[in-house]
Amino acid sequence: MKIYTKTGDKGTTALFGGTRVPKHHIRIESYGTVDELNSYLGLIRDQDINQHYKDILIRVQDRLFTVGAILATPPDKAILKNGKERLNIPKISDEDIERLEHEIDAMNESLPPMTHFVLPGGHQTVSFCHIARCVCRRAERLATALNDVEPIDPHTIMYLNRLSDYLFVLARKLTFDLQAPEVKWIPEKQ
Using one digit for the tens of pLDDT, what is the confidence trace for 69-94? Predict the structure, then answer.
């Protein structure tokens, strides 16, 4: 199979189901940002971190492929003429969201309480988590903008929201595990 098709040479691309849209379409921006997030999660997973976190990140990366497929499918193309769903993939479920919540709660148990905002950084791996968190927030903003135009499954937005929380707590937990400094933001007085 060739990687290049030349069908996008004029600035359009095909959504799942065949509809062609400009490459800057909100739907493309949405799932493209999820793809970018997935790449950053791979970067975090490639770091020297606990295997449990790597396993969770692999599961999250799998779910992000599901999110991408959902975002790449316009509502009018989601159901085939015979009434079956076009996407033959698992949906984002309550259990997926609850799994992230469980992981957040488990990490938080060993962390000191938050009393200040923290500045991103302190260790390269921690910085990668913060970058991923920011990309996740952007993906969430784009997904909500898309939802304003064409409704998407609410679990998709909920999952991205919870994932950004997970990435923030993972950054704090890795800061703790790596004994890196956690720099609190203290506004300068004018």
Answer: 999 887 776 666 666 776 677 799 99
Residue-wise DSSP of the chain = --S--STTTTSEEEPTTS-EEETTSHHHHHHHHHHHHHHHHHHHHTSS--HHHHHHHHHHHHHHHHHHHHHTS-GGGSB-TTS-BS--SPPP-HHHHHHHHHHHHHHHTTSPPP-S-B-S-SSHHHHHHHHHHHHHHHHHHHHHHHHHHS---HHHHHHHHHHHHHHHHHHHHHHHHTT---PBP-PPP-
Residue 116's nearest CA partner among 170, 183, 22 is 183
Stated pTM of the model: 0.89
Pick the CATH number of 19-177 from 1.20.1200.10, 3.20.20.70, 2.60.120.200, 2.40.440.10: 1.20.1200.10
Report pLDDT digits (tens) over 94-142: 999 999 999 999 999 999 988 888 999 999 999 999 999 999 999 999 9
**Per-residue pLDDT tens over the stretch 139-170:** 999 999 999 999 999 999 999 999 999 999 99
